[in-house]
């Protein structure tokens, strides 16, 4: 496990959700080589979709820029080993379900 080696850059997630993201990243790195960025991203994205509902996006790599619109409370950018990981629940527009706990949107540059 890689506990204690993750460095969080930006986040607006609750602490428990942040910990889930870090734990899943560590688990993914136990299952995949660091060169398999797409497989790591797929693993984390699918697990967050399962745990927190659909619409999650995950980007993994050593050098990338981003500017994304995400649901408030659903964004984390962190580094673990040599990889940067961006995980967020995306949005296609301003339409929001009144029962959706992640209804507000925010744009962040990471």
UniProtKB/TrEMBL annotation:
The lineage of its organism: Eukaryota, Viridiplantae, Streptophyta, Embryophyta, Tracheophyta. Belongs to the dynein light chain family. This is Dynein light chain. InterPro entries: DLC_sf (IPR037177), Dynein_light_chain_typ-1/2 (IPR001372). Pfam families: Dynein_light (PF01221). Its main location: cytoplasm. It comes from the Eukaryota. GO terms for cellular component: dynein complex; microtubule.
